[in-house]
Amino acid sequence: MSAAADALAEYRPALRPRVLLSDALLHGAATVHLIKDTDSGSSFRVGPKEHFLIARMDGERSLREIGEEYAREYGRRLDGARWQQILRMLGTRGLLAGADARTPAGPAGSAALAGSAALATRPAGSAEPARGVLRGSIRLVADADAATARLHRAVGFLLAPGWLVPLLVLVVAMEGMVALRVGELLVNARELFINPVLLTGAATLLWFSTALHELAHGVVARHHGGTVAEIGLRWRLPVVIMYCTVGNYLYLGTRWQRIHTALAGAVMNLLFLLPFCALWMFAPLDTATHDALGALLLLGSAQALAMLVPFPPLDGYRVVSQLCGATGLAASTGTYLRLVARRDPAAAGYPCRARTAYLGYGLGSVLVLALILAAVVAAAHHLLTV
User: Fold this and answer.
1) By three-state DSSP, how is residue 177 classified?
2) Residue closest to 48 by CA, chosen among 27, 29, 35, 33
């Protein structure tokens, strides 16, 4: 072995600390992993073999050791040229410790860089969106992650089972009550919409609930080791909403942590309703206020449940995507179902896991749409006959 080849074999590459790797995810017929550079915001897709190599670049293992593990796993060895290609690709993207985003470092050399087919990388919009009053969004805090960390220290204890389980039991009981009295609450909601004062009050409370919804995503993500990139306001007049961006949502430690983070907003919407439910049930209120609170319970519950509908970009879609272990679930499902409808032989090339996920999501989407339509028709019929 030449001195240069031996030096390459003993090189111990390390990813930069702020480079994140995702679990295996379905993408079309393929299984991919996502890699994100949190400094630039760029993200890339790689295949399982490339992920196997990159995930072992910890600064402790040499390329020789990583190559031996790869050979045991996949039955083939990488030669020096392929290692050079992989290291150059990682180096030019600034993913290796000590490598500049423009200039590869270490054994990869200083030759001009070319795209690596082996990495199959695909950048995803790294430029930050334009912001400002005239752009439709503004930041509310300079350091969203620090602000969320302070909020987590203040209310994070509520995520402990001793607090969370009783609260969820109360939420389930409240929703059961809403379901039992939905006819009465529908009438209350209709009356609310012809009372401008009470309608304004209810709308303000529901908007505040959406703000808490967004912050809940950030707090739960922070609880699971995530980071919050931005908290701000976004508007498409006349609608103005708050948003909270979890920068590393897809890279949280486990699938269930990601699901908990996605569910946090809807759960917060329902928790927000608990004190109003108590007033509605037990407080000595005048008829107008009592009925307005009933309408608030119905509208707030509908708001929370709407966020769990499994269509993009809603939280329910994120939950289902995680349950399926997929990225781009809706688009991949559409592509697969079109292939099936045309009896295209390419559909048979999808692995069993992908076929199950895409058929399940497609059929589930139709069922959800049917249930929503049935609920709307039933509500309209009730209001017209009361």
Assistant:
1) helix
2) 33
Secondary structure of residue 380 in the 3-state scheme:
helix
Please state the pTM of the whole predicted model.
0.87
Residue 123, preceding bond cis, omega within 30 degrees?
Answer: no
Cα distance between residue 82 and residue 95, in whole Å = 17
Backbone phi and psi for residue 136, each to the nearest 5 degrees, phi listed first: 95, 5
The Cα-based distances of 311 to 111, 307, 328, 335 in angstroms read 46, 9, 11, 16
| pLDDT computed for residue 131 by the predictor | 60
Phi, psi of 133 (to 5 degrees): -60, -40
d(CA 307, CA 316): 6
For residue 25, give the 3-state DSSP assignment: strand
How far apart, in whole angstroms, are the C-alpha atoms of residue 211 and residue 107?
Answer: 50
* CA-atom Rg of the chain in angstroms: 26
Among 364, 360, 362, 348, CA closest to 29: 348
Question: For residue 7, what pLDDT is reported?
Answer: 81
Residue 315, C-beta contacts closer than 8 angstroms, at least 6 positions apart:
262, 263, 265, 266, 307, 308
- How far apart CA 92 and CA 137 sit, in angstroms, is 33
Mean pLDDT by 10 residues, the chain (386 residues): 76 91 95 90 89 93 93 91 89 80 38 34 43 73 94 96 97 97 96 94 96 96 94 86 92 95 97 97 94 97 96 96 96 97 95 96 97 96 90
Residues 6+ apart with CB under 8 A from 172: none
269 near 213, Cβ under 8 Å? yes
Question: Of 364, 309, 371, which is closest to residue 337 (Cα–Cα)?
Answer: 364
Q: Give dist(CA 63, CA 13) in Å, integer.
A: 8
| C-alpha span between 55 and 15 (Å, rounded) | 8
